[in-house]
Structures are given as C-alpha cells and as structure tokens.
Amino acid sequence: MDSLQEIAEQVKMCRQCRLCEGRTNAVPGIGNPQAEVVFIGEGPGKSEDELGMPFVGAAGKFLDKMLASIGWTRDDVFITNVVKCRPPENRDPLPDEIQACSQYLARQLVLLKPLIIATLGRHSMGIFFPDKKISEMHGKAIRTKGVNGPQVYLPLYHPAAALYNGGLQATLMADFQKIPQLLNQLKDTKQHA
Ligand code: URA
Ligand code: SF4
Questions:
Q1: How far apart (Å, rounded) are the C-alpha atoms in residues 32 and 20?
Q2: Is the Cβ–Cβ distance between 39 and 120 less than 8 Å?
Q3: Which reaction does it catalyse (predicted)?
Q4: Are 58 and 20 contacting, i.e. CB atoms less than 8 angstroms apart?
Q5: What predicted TM-score, i.e. pTM, was given to this entire model?
C-alpha cells in the first residue's frame, strides 16, 4: 500500500528528470494526511530548496496570511507542487519535467482524496485544464467526480504573482474566501449522497 511518506522518500531519491541535478533538497509536500483541501503550487524556489518544504519564502508568507484570513493554518491542509525539485533560476518547469514528476502528484491525490484541489498559478491549473486561461478561470469552482465522491478544482492565482500586484492580490484574497463555503457545500453533498 502506497503512503504519503513512501512517496516523499521516493521523491527525495528521484532522478527521473534533470531537475534533480540542481536541487539541494527535493520538496515532496507537507500537511495533514486527512486534509480536505490540497494546494498545488508550481515548484520549489530558493528557500523551499534549502529547507525541503513548500512555500516557506515570501509567497509562502502570503499563503499563510490567506489561510489565517479564513481561520486556518497549514495543519488544516496539504501543500505541494507540480514539480518537486527547484528549476534553475526559478524558470518555469518544462513539459518533460512536469510529465516526469506527475506520477508523484497523482499518487498523492489518490491517497489524499481531497474535496477541493486548489491550483496556484497557471502551471498548476495547466496540468488539469491545459487549454484554459487563468484570467478566466480563477475563483471558479469546477465540479468533477473524484474517486471518493464529489471533487472540485478551484484555480487560484499564484501568491508570488500577487505579491507585487495589488489588484491581483485583492482578487486572490477574494477568491480564497470562497473556500470554506465551498467545502461546507461539498461535505453536505457527500453526506447526503
Ligand atoms: N512557489 C511555488 O510554486 N511553490 C513553492 O513551494 C514556493 C513558491
Ligand atoms: Fe524526480 Fe520530480 Fe525531482 Fe524531476 S522534479 S527529479 S521527476 S522528483
């Protein structure tokens, strides 16, 4: 039986794409194994690579602030990335790197069975909705059927993009506020299914 810990161990030893060459630490992801909401970022940056943890730099502080704004902490959710190793100079992950790493995210999602998959930024949204535009999709819940019943994708802007853009920051914060109500609806639906 697969476990989140097992996946993390495999990620730390993984050499399935070129991103392994520049990493200090792989960043498998962290959080509550019972989480009902999973956040998926793009890939580790400098601080994340140094510490082996997701979203610990400036963008992470903003993510913490958004979580606090709905009364949550990191312990309530699970946080991971599309690619688990830092792309050099924080460049975008390449399609073959995303492809090579996708099995880890897929397995994490099978185990977590979240009610809400919140994608952060266009690369993260792009693995589920390759043809959509984030400017049109952000803040809109996309309902699907997961292995465990109802499941919703919620595309959000990336907190790093919002850091230096006040308008985007307000939009991201507003979209984020939809999470608790959306989650309650989903739990309700699940209960009465
Ligand atoms: N940006 C990301 O997309 N992921 C992180 O873990 C940190 C910053
Ligand atoms: Fe392996 Fe993913 Fe790291 Fe590439 S980015 S080496 S596929 S863990």
A1: 26
A2: yes
A3: Hydrolyzes single-stranded DNA or mismatched double-stranded DNA and polynucleotides, releasing free uracil
A4: no
A5: 0.97
Residue appearing with tokens 């059927």: 145
Rounded Cα distance between 130 and 190, Å, is 28
Cα–Cα dist 93/154, whole Å: 21
**Domain spans, the chain:** 4-191
Measured CA to CA, the distance from residue 174 to residue 183 in angstroms comes to 16
48-79 tens-digit pLDDT: 999 999 999 999 999 999 999 999 999 999 99
- CA-nearest of 97, 8, 100 to 54 is 8
**Is the CB of residue 19 below 6 angstroms from any atom belonging to ligand 2?**
yes
Mutational test site, ligand 2, from 16, 21, 27, 104, max ligand atoms within 8 Å of CB:
16
Name the fold adopted by 4-191. Answer: Uracil-DNA Glycosylase, subunit E (3.40.470)
